[in-house]
Amino acid sequence: MRRLRRLAHLVLFCPFSKGLQGRLPGLRVKYVFLVWLGVFAGSWMAYTHYSSYAELCRGHICQVVICDQFRKGIISGSICQDLCHLHQVEWRTCLSSVPGQQVYSGLWQGKEVTIKCGIEESLNSKAGSDGAPRRELVLFDKPSRGTSIKEFREMTLSFLKANLGDLPSLPALVGRVLLMADFNKDNRVSLAEAKSVWALLQRNEFLLLLSLQEKEHASRLLGYCGDLYVTEGVPLSSWPGATLPPLLRPLLPPALHGALQQWLGPAWPWRAKIAMGLLEFVEDLFHGAYGNFYMCETTLANVGYTAKYDFRMADLQQVAPEAAVRRFLRGRRCEHSADCTYGRDCRAPCDTLMRQCKGDLVQPNLAKVCELLRDYLLPGAPAALRPELGKQLRTCTTLSGLASQVEAHHSLVLSHLKSLLWKEISDSRYT
Question: Is the dihedral of CA 218, 219, 224, 226 positive or negative?
Fold first, then answer.
């Protein structure tokens, strides 16, 4: 009986065992291939990350070039000694998003600061035989030797008129530029000081910082050397993806951003306080002392805040003066509205008959900011507030046309939104 059972067992299971044995080599090959693929993908991602980091983060090149020009006497500035001779400016985390604009967190005079320096890609072709960039031939070429202070004043005024418009307030801004150039307070502007300030004015963000220094929502300028400048500490980012490793950010589906905002972002009342600051910043840009400015890249990545949850604009690179946007659009050939885009989202209509861009932007700053605030404020908002807040934000996003034509409506919508938020947070610890 035992033999019969053993025989039956062999008959039943031997074919299965042979089939399993036949599949084992194939399974091994499959698993080996998957492991190899994983190792290859990981190595490629690590290589890509390293290459991207090496391309984006070149602060050491910035410092070498700036200090080389300072030692030659070509440039000057209030932090040159600390940066180049005393080595008291500490470079920390790389925050650059594009290779041409180097951004680092840092430490200077015991303060947390942001260090910003531009690297011109065109300099590579102009490097000398020793490989050192000859930056003075490109960036620090103006004013020329022998320029008087009167000529430099007129040169600066002409530049500001071209970029900000012909405004009665510009002479005061020119005076501020000359005062900043004379950082050592010797009542004269040397050629090195003039070259440095002129190079700084070519940086869009620096020009905006200078124009908005009296406003509380722009970072305060602390010092400069050549076209390298230092502002107050790095604002915390309101974009939840900023806390994640750079390689993971593009993999996040849009639907997950709202959930991350709940988990990683500030509590809702703090978000309301940050939003209040953003709305006040829109007011600062609208009919300010130095004209109108347009926000041409409206994303949460540019919405920052301090440790006390006061709003700070994290990046002013894509905030453009109205005069500069109009100059870009004037007479521009187009087939459709997408051809009439300055930056990422400053778009004007295309006259399809004339095939030219019109000068009026389709969407004002406030409408773009309200689109941003819908996803930022509505999730987690108090239940009693949510219907009215949603209604106000929907009304706000419908604003369109030339800002001067909707000025009254623009101001009314802005006032309603601020009142609604202030009423919710004014009687709490969040103020």
Answer: negative
Q: Give the pTM.
A: 0.77
- The C-alpha angle 108, 114, 116, rounded to 5 degrees, equals 110
pLDDT beyond 60 at 2: no
Q: Are residues 277 and 413 in the same domain?
A: yes
Per-residue burial over 205-235, b if 16 or more Cβ lie within 10 Å, else e, is bbbbbbbbeebebbbebbbbbbbbbbbbbbb
* CATH code of the domain in which 294 resides: 1.10.510
Mean pLDDT of 40-46: 48
Domain with 184, as residue range(s), is 58-119+143-232
CB-based burial, 272-302: b 16+ in 10 Å, e otherwise: bbbbbbbbebbbbbbebebbbbbbbbbbbbb
Spatial contact of 69 and 140, defined as CB atoms under 8 Å apart: yes
Question: Biggest alpha carbon distance in the chain?
Answer: 118
In a shared domain, residues 66 and 200: yes
| Among 297, 288, 296, 308, CA closest to 361 | 296
CA–CA distance, 80 with 70 (Å, rounded to integer): 7
Q: What are phi and psi of 96, to 5 degrees?
A: -65, 140
The amino acid present at 94, given as its one-letter code, is C
Select the highest-mean-pLDDT range: 16-20, 32-36, 369-373: 369-373
